[in-house]
């Protein structure tokens, strides 16, 4: 038997970031077009930019940040000839490497200039963080731009010497826009009582289908404290601005949109006990949905299957609303929906200065079912609370216009929702189709099965999701109802701006009292606490409005 020789080397600690995330399936060649989509480059108006997705590691720290696993700093590499770096990339170590930064090329002259100097923002020499995997120190530098120019990112080095002035480029101010903090990446956090380093991802402050701000993919590093207020603070960096935004030359054409949706179209799993399934809007109208007008409640009108007799545009003034059929048999049919004949509706949105395309996938449900309260170990049906007629939910796919890669997915949840990076998403059977889960009765969308409590601790409203044989493949039956860059004839129902359901026909206070009267002791007290903190959308006193009336129709999701 051989002798055991102790290792003289440190044990290597592997982290999620040591793995590079890739989509499960190789992407196809996108259909041809006349614009920049999928070409790898976008012209912002004299400044040509490309998206760099490969990096050289500069420095890493293995403490602090998310899950206390630290973060890693990178330089984009290789950078195409003639292009210049705008800044380094930083990512927390608790997830696989999946990021990008933009690099730029000046096509007209005087758009890009070297900084005139650097300021040291922070170095690890005096840091409270300990780094067990390296003896190198890290230094984060802020470029000082010449007058009339702005810096877009930081330089990170392992030397206390200032970087070369041509290491990074600053951009003429007319091609930049204001940015804001997006999410915390690494640092001491703002709960620290002493000033400390914090690194955040950033995004354009103004975002929407008409906004020109372009994300760079870089980060913002600052010495912050618990007294800092980002909403009133002038940030040291800027983002880019697309001055060619109006021609939509970077947006996908119709055939490219269809190819993108074929790649990424969501697969929605419903809970095995789900009774209130989606349908197409046309099916709902053809199966007895009614249009009511204020003052003529006794004489509702049937709705044409294509919604052509619905009032168009105008304010949501309560003058009209939709409701289920009056006949009990038809009402019961409508409430259940029709999964086999469901259709999803796509809104194609230019985002982040038309460097990304958002495909918002809207799903319609004729009815939203009642909620269930979880009071510790006991589940309590919520009676009629949570019920309403007409329910719209959506999933948004954010796709890079440089290469057609899916980078983010947004899932709507009641009146809010959550952005997910692609590595957080489940994909269907080795394909690039996104898997999401619709919660029982309430139809909030989540990226994994299980229980999510809407409340606090072990008391709240249940959002249960699970896989079952009830599945909606969104790619099988869809229609594009709106696209900022294409001529699309919108269905009449899209321009119906009133409510898709009536006001509640029951008194919420009475429903709450019914439930309270059936509870005793600690359960009653827990329920009373829950009622006080529930968000307004649980009560749903007003009928919901359609997709075009939502703030995210023209704006960003959050």
Outline type: globular
Question: What is the rounded Rg?
Answer: 26 Å
Low-confidence stretches: 1-10
The rounded distance between the terminal residues' Cα atoms is 63 Å
As a percent range, the share of strand residues is: 25-35%
- Mean of all residue-level pLDDT scores: 91
**Total helical elements:** 6
Strand order of the largest sheet: 30-29-28-25-24-37
Q: Helical residue percent?
A: under 10%
- By secondary-structure content and strand pairing, the structural class works out as mainly beta
Number of strands: 37
**Largest sheet, strands/sense/barrel:** 6 strands, mixed
Q: Which descriptors would you attach to this protein?
A:
558 residues, mainly beta, 6-stranded mixed β-sheet, 5-stranded mixed β-sheet, 6 helices, disordered N terminus
